[in-house]
Amino acid sequence: MSKFNPGVYTGIANSNGYDSLPSKIKVAVTLSEDRIEKVEILSHGEIKGVGYGLKTSPVETIPNEIVKHQSLGIPPVIGAERTSQGIIKAVTRAIAKSGAKTASLSKKVAREPHKDEERFVDFLVLGGGAGGLAAGVQARQAGADVLIVEAAGVTGGSAARSGGKVMAPGTKWQKAVGIYDSPDMLFDYMMEQSRGKADPKKIRFFCDRAYENLLWLEKCGWKCQDVESIHESIVPWRVYNSEGGHYMSAGQGGHITYAMHEEYERLGGEIVFNCSLKELIYEGGAVKGAICEYAGGGTLTVRANNVLLATGGFAANREKVESLYPQMKGYFTDVPKTNVGTGIDAAVAVGAKEFVSPGVQVNYMSLTPALVGINEEAGLILDASGRRVVNEWSYQYVVGDALMRSKSDHGWYISCGNEIYDSVVKAFAAGPTPGTPDIFADSLEELADKMGVEFDVLKATVERYNEFAESGVDEDFGKPAKFLFPIKGPRYAAFYYTPCITVTFGGLITDLCGRVLDKEDKPIPGLFSTGETSPAGIYGTIYPGCGTSIGAAVLWGRVAAMMATNQPVF
Fold it and tell me: How far is 277 from 33, CA to CA, in rounded Å?
């Protein structure tokens, strides 16, 4: 009896896509009487350098794995799970069209185990995100024997999932559109945003080299689409989009990491995938390598005189985040599941000092149809108690910082539908969406009750805000009059704000050369760090601008490589 009805069948499923929203992935599956003969991706909208583009990306590997194992139970690519699952779901639906029972194809396929192995290299890079890839390229340019060990099945880390922006002053792109900017101006801005809490030496180092860093990325193959503002209130424009990027887009960061990945491999660099750091090798008062474990089993021991930790932050470590920042309870994040602070913990185990930051990069936003919180919507924003805490016409991370400092695990966007923002107007007109925490009411008292706040508090907040709207002067926070939309009914809406975390500010402490410091502020021989593993000194409690994290990761990844391979540091 035949297993399948021979033919070519198509299937469509939601997958990852851009802007953290589902995209459609379409496949064609060729069946013979007893086999899956071919799986072809017809169309998709995945992230370059994560969902597709690399030899190990799901679009390139999952179809072949399904055919090889004749199973839909193959393991997803670590770090690209949603794309992997989207492909498998689409193939499942295609096969179901043939009349076959897909349950017979669900046998789980185990990840391939590896034999225990020991390697010797000049420079070991743990983590293949923006910082790790930059270090790999810089070291290979000097002819060093480099090995990048990546916990996921693709490179890119959280940078690939970002908007793909980099920040720099005084560039050719600014000059082309008549914008004047300078390292001094960027320095003043970043120190102001940190409220003086950032390390001025690190900020100066970053600002003076940011443009050269951007040109270096361009030489690696990255292409700048344009320069833009990160918020209408912030000038001059100094944020640079990757191809396809725009304001608060996501996923274009893959264009940056993909370019460095390709350049690293062109230079002969090697990457080991699906292998995570277990512990650092610490001998004679110095780091001499690392012991890593493969996802499918097996140990990789790498001996090296210089080791770079570029394993990312800990935004995916919910226990740690909610322990350090209780107001973040229930937060949302889209960083890779491997971002749990592995490198930080490994370094602390050999004597490194860990910096606990009072803040994180947090944006309180609506995950419901209103979609407020990411596109400069400047209506009335309240903390969890129903109080106003910020000038809503501020950069989104300024708003997020104010809500976080108010100890709020959520916020509210209050509207009567009388605004200039399409998403708010449409959501207000559509009314309640079942299954969401958004609230609609016919009176302010009813709204307070549904929000779980004291009516007297909400009433006082709204009345004072309406006074400002009428006079055109915001005496509390200085919001411009054109953004003071009165809250006077007759119908009210409160759109629920969930804290969303991307970048964590705590981690290892490093010097200007990227060397990890111990508890006596002395460099630990052989150990370097970059990116979110060691962001201390770059931030206060506010994320200063799109492109800061990627730019800093790339810069200090390169600096660490220069130090490790005896290259002049700029």
Answer: 45
Distance CA 165, CA 536 (A): 21
User: What percent of the chain clears pLDDT 90, i.e. is strictly above it?
Assistant: 90
* Cα→Cα distances 118→14, 291, 303, Å: 41, 9, 8
If pLDDT is split at 50, 70 and 90, which confidence band does 19 have? very low
The string of pLDDT tens digits covering residues 466-522 is 999 999 999 999 999 999 999 999 999 999 999 999 999 999 999 999 999 999 999
Count CB-CB contacts under 10 A for residue 176. 10
Q: Which residues contact 408 (CB under 8 A, 6 or more apart)?
A: 327, 364, 383, 384, 385
Angle CA 73–78–84, to nearest 5: 50
Give me the numbers of helices (H) and strands (E) for the chain, helices first please. 15, 23
Amino acid identity, position 9: Y
Supply the angle between the helices 58-69 and 81-97 in degrees, to the nearest 10.
Answer: 50
DSSP annotation of 108 reads B
Q: Which residues of 408-426 are buried (b: 16+ CB within 10 A; e: fewer)?
A: bbbbbbbbbeebebebbee
CA–CA separation, 535 and 357 (whole Å): 9
State the DSSP H helix or E strand holding residue 471, giving kind and residue range, or none if neither: helix 455-471
Interval 181-231: pLDDT, tens: 999 999 999 999 999 999 999 999 999 999 999 999 999 999 999 999 888
Helices 253-266 and 130-141, packing angle to 10 deg: 30
**Rounded Cα–Cα distance for residues 540 and 530 (Å):** 18
Please tell me what DSSP assigns to residue 112: P
Q: At what angle do helices 200-220 and 253-266 cross, to 10 degrees?
A: 70
Residues 6 or more apart whose CB falls under 8 angstroms from that of 456 comprise: none
The DSSP result for 151-209, as a single string, is: SSSSS-HHHHHS--EEE-SS-HHHHHTT----HHHHHHHHHHHTTT-S-HHHHHHHHHH
Alpha carbon distance 513, 529 (integer Å): 9
Q: Is 473 exposed, middle or buried (0-12, 13-18, 19+ CB in 10 A)?
A: middle
Angle formed by the axes of helices 444-451 and 455-471, nearest 10° = 130
**What is the helix (H) or strand (E) element at residue 260, kind and residue range?**
helix 253-266
SS3 496: strand
β-bridge pairing 306-309 and 123-126: parallel
Cα distances from 476 to residues 187, 413, 467, in angstroms, run 28, 18, 11
532's tokens: 């979110």
User: By three-state DSSP, how is residue 382 classified?
Assistant: strand
Q: Per DSSP, what are the bridge partners of residue 39?
A: 29
What share of the chain in percent tops pLDDT 70? 98
Q: Which two tokens stand for residue 518?
A: 């111990």
